[in-house]
Specification:
Biased composition (Acidic residues): 402-416
Shape: elongated
Helix content: 40-55%
Number of helices: 14
Radius of gyration: 27 Å
Distance between the termini: 45 Å
Protein name: Reverse transcriptase
Strand order of the largest sheet: 4-5-6-7
Organism: Daphnia magna
Strand content: 5-15%
Mean pLDDT: 78
Low-confidence stretches: 208-219, 401-439
Order of helices and strands: HHHHHHEEEHHHHHEEEHEHH
Region (Disordered): 385-425
């Protein structure tokens, strides 16, 4: 077998392995068969799995090793490798090469300046030809304008050879993340909401929670012809409806809301504010979730949990603002039902002067509470009509300890930037999040 054939066979094997890995991950995460490919490789901060594609990784390591050899500290190794590269380019040009060899263009996979002729050359296959092919597949440019300053450039990332693997993996992950967010089908909807807040590592820390539960359902609507909600029957049975609109889930939705409200109340009390909960505004029927005085003025904070879609979160924020703005200063707190964080929530921290550690701990707990509450709703929805819905043993989500109320953020310096109800949250019952809810 020729060297070219061997390389092609190796890439075909990696492609097949990628396919099998996605099938395996799909089984672990209880994903539907139509799960989009970018989901497996997108950043965990937007709900992806954050894994590496083997074919991409092979190209990344090829480029990294080629660049590292060309900048090796050992002058003997460095000179031998550069001479081999130059010889490969000359043989590709069949002795019709220009005076100055286009080393950077060659390694970057360019076909300009006569480099297109190299595809017909019999220069053989070696590390440099493989690096050229890998750079072309990944859209990477290798800048060799300086002997000691070789740079590997892709999209908005420019790294030295020693950091090539990490940098190119970041580029690949960013590309899959963009593909997932821009997915025209329903699969990228939640990712758009989660991408609104990308400074913290909350969603990466919540990663262990994103596993399948034991419900046995891979998506809400089954393969039956009737796609209406099995509980209320009024709308199609989708994540949007089950988590936010189903009337039969109102009790658990109120419990989810009140859990976040309790966390907010605890935070404000620790900050020294004298808060009142669900008190009616004099002469009005409106009852803001939390109310307190700041510099002699009324400040209200109202919690709303909505679907993880930028449009839904913006509308929820505006509704709360329009509802209360004529009665004082209103600071809506908008949390997605699957953990999205609306960026304007951080105005609460800025206005009240809450320190980064306390606000980071609250943000993490609030997002976790939204996920837990949503999973309670999902399990109750799936178990509707079951003879014994309490029989299943649901493993718990990772939760913060009672004494760990101020969790140290990994990026401490960053800025981080429904009223009342009759059912209060009790206990620490947790249910694992189903990965398929991303869809």
């Amino acid at each position: 077998m020729s060297e070219h054939g061997f390389v092609k066979q190796s890439m075909d094997c990696l492609t097949q392995l990628d396919t099998e890995c996605r099938k395996f991950l799909g089984l672990i995460c209880n994903l539907p068969n139509h799960a989009t490919v970018p989901f497996f490789y997108a950043d965990r901060r937007v709900g992806g799995l954050g894994t590496c594609r083997l074919t991409d990784d092979a190209d990344i390591w090829t480029i990294a090793r080629a660049a590292q050899l060309l900048t090796c500290r050992d002058p003997t190794v460095r000179n031998i490798c550069r001479e081999q590269l130059h010889d490969t380019i000359r043989r590709g040009f069949r002795n019709e090469h220009p005076g100055v060899l286009p080393v950077g263009e060659y390694l970057s996979g360019s076909v300009d300046g006569g480099l297109y002729r190299l595809r017909y050359a019999e220069a053989g296959s070696n590390l440099w030809t493989l690096a050229r092919q890998a750079a072309k597949r990944l859209g990477v440019r290798i800048d060799v304008s300086g002997d000691e300053n070789l740079r590997i450039v892709a999209d908005d990332v420019s790294v030295s050879p020693v950091k090539a693997v990490r940098g190119l993996r970041k580029v690949a992950r960013q590309r899959y993340t963009r593909d997932l967010i821009s997915d025209k089908s329903h699969q990228g909807v939640v990712a758009t909401g989660l991408s609104l807040e990308d400074k913290s590592k909350d969603m990466a820390r919540l990663g262990p929670a994103r596993h399948p539960s034991s419900s046995g359902h891979s998506w809400f609507c089954s393969q039956e012809q009737d796609t209406s909600c099995r509980r209320c029957g009024k709308e199609n049975e989708t994540g949007f409806h089950v988590l936010n609109h189903c009337e039969e889930g109102l009790q658990l939705a109120t419990k989810r809301h009140n859990t976040i409200q309790d966390l907010l109340e605890s935070l404000l009390v620790k900050q020294g504010h004298d808060v009142t909960i669900n008190n009616a505004i004099p002469g009005q029927r409106l009852r803001p979730d939390v109310e307190f005085q700041l510099s002699g003025s009324r400040v209200m904070v109202d919690v709303v949990v909505c679907y993880d879609q930028p449009g839904s979160m913006e509308n929820a924020y505006q509704r709360k603002y329009d509802k209360y703005s004529s009665h004082g200063r209103i600071l809506p707190l908008v949390v997605g039902s699957l953990g999205s964080w609306y960026p304007r929530n951080d105005e609460i921290r800025s206005i009240l002067g809450i320190n980064g550690r306390s606000w980071g701990a609250f943000r993490f707990k609030a997002r976790l509470a939204a996920i837990q509450g949503s999973m309670d709703m999902v399990c109750a929805h799936f178990h509707h009509g079951a003879p014994n819905p309490e029989a299943e043993d649901n493993p718990p989500l990772p939760v913060l300890s009672e004494e760990g109320e101020e969790v140290e953020e990994e990026e401490e310096e960053e800025d981080g930037c429904g009223g009342g109800g009759f059912y209060r949250h009790t206990g620490n019952q947790t249910i694992e999040i189903q990965q398929h809810l991303v869809y």
